[in-house]
Amino acid sequence: MSACRTPLPPETLLAYWLGELDEAGTAAADAHLLGCDDCGAALDALVALGDGVRRAFTAGRVGTVVGPGFVPRLAGRGLRLREYRVAPQGRVNCHVGPDDDIVLSRLSAPLAGLGRLDMLVHPVGGGPPQRAEDIPFDAAAGEVVVVMPTQRLRALPSGTERVELLAVEPAGERRIGDYTFIHRSSAG
Ligand SMILES: [Zn+2]
Fold first, then answer.
1. Of 139, 138, 140, whose CA–CA distance to 104 is shortest?
2. How many angstroms separate the alpha carbon of residue 82 from the centre of ligand 1?
3. How many angstroms separate the CA atoms of 90 and 102, rounded?
4. What is the pLDDT of residue 106?
5. What is the pLDDT, as a whole number, of residue 53?
6. From ligand 1's centre to the CA of 155, what distance in Å?
7. 10-47: per-residue pLDDT in tens?
8. How many angstroms does the Cα of residue 22 sit away from the middle of ligand 1?
9. Structural domains for the chain
10. 169 CA distance to ligand 1 centroid (A)?
């Protein structure tokens, strides 16, 4: 078996796995993977890294919530990370650089003792909020880690996105964090 001469880059494999490529990108990756054992093996290796957290993924236009331990393993594979840490009522200026493979938000919140946690995202440019239910979180670290869809972020106009974390309890919902991302378009 000869080595692939046009390997899919790791960030493309990651986006493919997370369901974050657009239709054309997905079709191109499908076609390549169908005929290439090397890249298929690389994808398998990536999937194995996330084993155990994949079930908890909330794939969608707004990002993928991952459990603790996933990010260090991605970094260990040489992917370039850009991280934004945001306080419970915090605001952050954000953008995607040309060399970034992965953009992460680390949402800090008081999470100890919580049962179910939901995330509500009000996307850039308006539109209905998207809700991710029962997301994974790291109670000890007090944070929720969201892998942002890098390829879609690159296409976004400048604008503001708001994210809320809601503790869902027998008595009802309680907002425990409210985060504002002021996004600057890659187009300038
Ligand atoms: Zn290949």
1. 138
2. 26
3. 21
4. 94
5. 53
6. 26
7. 878 888 887 778 889 999 999 999 999 999 988 887 77
8. 19
9. 10-49 (no CATH), 60-183 (2.60.40)
10. 48
